[in-house]
Amino acid sequence: MICSSTPCDVTRVEEVFSMHGAAAKTVTCPAIDGIIKEAEEVAGEVEDKEVLDAALAAAAQAVEHYEITRYGTLIAWAKRLGRADCASVLQRNLDEEKAADKKLTSIAESKLNIRAAE
User: Fold this and answer.
1) Are 116 and 51 spatial neighbours (Cβ–Cβ below 8 Å)?
2) 66-116: per-residue pLDDT in tens?
3) pLDDT of residue 53
4) pLDDT in tens, 39-76
5) 41, 42, 71, 74 - which has most CB atoms within 10 Å?
6) Taking CA 67 as the corner, what is the angle to CA 62 and CA 72, rounded to the nearest 5 degrees?
7) At what angle do helices 49-80 and 7-19 cross, to 10 degrees?
8) 27 pLDDT exceeds 90?
9) Spatial distance between the Cα atoms of 62 and 52, rounded to a whole number of angstroms
10) Cα 21 to Cα 5: distance, rounded to the nearest angstrom
11) If you average pLDDT over residues 7-23, what whole number do you get?
12) Which residues, in sequence order, are CB contacts of 51 under 8 Å at separation 6+?
């Protein structure tokens, strides 16, 4: 089970389930729900728009980091089980999550955090 956020992520996870002859099912993810709840609470407490933007970017990165850990683990398991085919599919998701995190870091460091500190 993995908490996926984008349609491509979901499609690839469903593909891996299919490769195993199993149907994927949607489940609630308490970890992601907690990150979202925390972001909503912060959003309700922060009045400064610049600080809010930085805080929301940080929350988005928390989601990316969670997904990175999950995909990394699933890839390691797939490889250990001799399922390089599944690992390859999941690696595309991991690469996208890492790229999103890198982009968020760049935006935060070059703009958001600087503006929030002013």
Assistant:
1) yes
2) 999 999 999 999 999 999 999 999 999 999 999 999 999 999 999 999 999
3) 93
4) 999 888 988 999 999 999 999 999 999 999 999 999 99
5) 71
6) 130
7) 10
8) no
9) 15
10) 23
11) 89
12) 116
Q: Which CATH class is domain 7-117?
A: mainly alpha
Do residues 92 and 12 touch, judged by C-beta distance below 8 A?
yes
Q: Are residues 81 and 11 in contact, defined by beta-carbon separation less than 8 angstroms?
A: no
Tokens of 22: 């199993």
Give the pair of three-digit tokens for residue 92: 């595309």
Structure tokens at 30: 């308490």
Q: Give DSSP secondary structure letters for the chain.
A: -----SHHHHHHHHHHHHHTT--------HHHHHHHHHHHHHHHH---HHHHHHHHHHHHHHHHHHHHHHHHHHHHHHHHTT-HHHHHHHHHHHHHHHHHHHHHHHHIIIIIHHHHH-
Length of the chain: 118
Tokens of 50: 């610049």
- Among residues 1, 33, 10, which one has the least CA distance to residue 93? 10
